[in-house]
Amino acid sequence: MSTLRIGIASYEQMKALTLAIAKGKRGEPKIWFTSMESFAKVLSDRNRALLNLIAESQPDSLAELAALSGRAKSNLSRTLHTMERYGLVLLKKKAGGKIQPRVPYSDIALDLPMRL
Fold this sequence. Notes:
This protein is of the alpha/beta class. It has helices at 11-22, 36-42, 45-57, 62-69, 73-85; strands at 2-8, 31-33, 90-93, 99-102, 105-111.
C-alpha cells in the first residue's frame, strides 16, 4: 500500500492549488481539508482506529465491521461514507447488498502550511 497525502488550505488556497495541479505545476496532496477542525473530525483517533481495524481484519461487510468495532451499523455507514468522499476508504458493493470496506493506504501524510 501507499501513502495518502492530505493538505489543509483555505477555499481560496485550494482554488489556486487546483489550478496549479491542472497546469502540472503541482501534484500533491490529493485530498484537501479547509481547516484543522474538519480534518480532525474525519480523522479523529476513533476513526483512525476504525481504519486500522478495517485494514487489519478486512471485514466482508458492514455488519461484520460493526461486530468487530462495537459501533452501530448506521453510525459506521455514515462515517464510512464520509471517509469515502475523501478517498480514505473504498466501499465495494458485493452480492446480496453487502458493502465491503477497504483501506487503500497504509499511511497518511499531512501537508500543513504555517501561513493561514
